[in-house]
Design brief:
- The chain is α+β, with helices and mostly antiparallel strands.
- About 20% of the residues lie in helices and about 30% in strands.
- The chain has four helices and nine strands; from the N terminus they run ααααβββββββββ.
- Helix 2 crosses helix 3 and helix 2 crosses helix 4.
- The protein is elongated, with a radius of gyration of 21 Å.
- The relative contact order is 0.12.
Length: about 190
């Protein structure tokens, strides 16, 4: 079996030790290295453990004949575009438990029509971690509020809507919230 463990690990900017530590139960960097290079046989159990540690599906770690890889052709930085030092592939976004999406119907703020915003649900006790981030909050009667969380006072959240010239809104005791974590945009 041909694995892509190394490609995925590098795309996630993780070291062998990072992956080894995140495995459940933890293992050694040497073991992960041997599994990457094929010096040790990769079982389905190992694939599942490593996939969980990397935050991907097990299928993302093997080369499948019916799936086309997206090779990384260039790296872009302040000096312009240049060739990568090592071969790499782009890892497609993976849906995780707790995600909800917002589809942008018309451009507002930094978002364009057609964008999809993936948000991770958070509990009320975690609202402080979402300060200065875009959040989705439920309101009564099936409505929602989406904007920048700019403050928190006891059970009240202060939200700055995305459109220019709009006034700050305050929402009390939302049962849950979701923080924007990924922007999916077609150019």
């Amino acid at each position: 079996m041909i694995t892509r463990i190394r490609d995925v690990r590098r795309a996630k900017k993780m070291t062998l030790q990072d992956v080894a530590d995140r495995c459940d139960p933890p293992t050694t960097a040497q073991t992960i290295g041997r599994l990457e290079t094929g010096m040790r046989t990769v079982s389905v159990g190992w694939l599942n453990r490593i996939a969980k540690a990397l935050g991907v599906e097990a299928a993302d770690l093997v080369t499948l004949p019916d799936r086309e890889d997206i090779p990384v052709a260039a790296l872009l930085d302040h000096n312009g575009a240049h060739a990568p030092r090592h071969e790499a592939v782009a890892i497609p976004p993976n849906a995780e438990p707790g995600l909800v999406a917002v589809t942008v119907a018309s451009s507002v703020g930094d978002y364009r029509s057609g964008d999809e915003i993936w948000c991770m649900r958070i509990a009320p006790e975690d609202y402080a971690r979402a300060l200065n981030r875009d959040v989705l909050l439920p309101r009564p009667a099936g409505r929602f509020l989406f904007g920048r969380l700019i403050g928190r006072e006891e059970d009240k959240l202060h939200i700055l809507p995305l459109g220019s010239g709009q006034r700050q809104m305050v929402i009390a005791n939302p049962p849950w919230g979701a923080v924007a974590t990924r922007l999916i945009r077609t150019l």
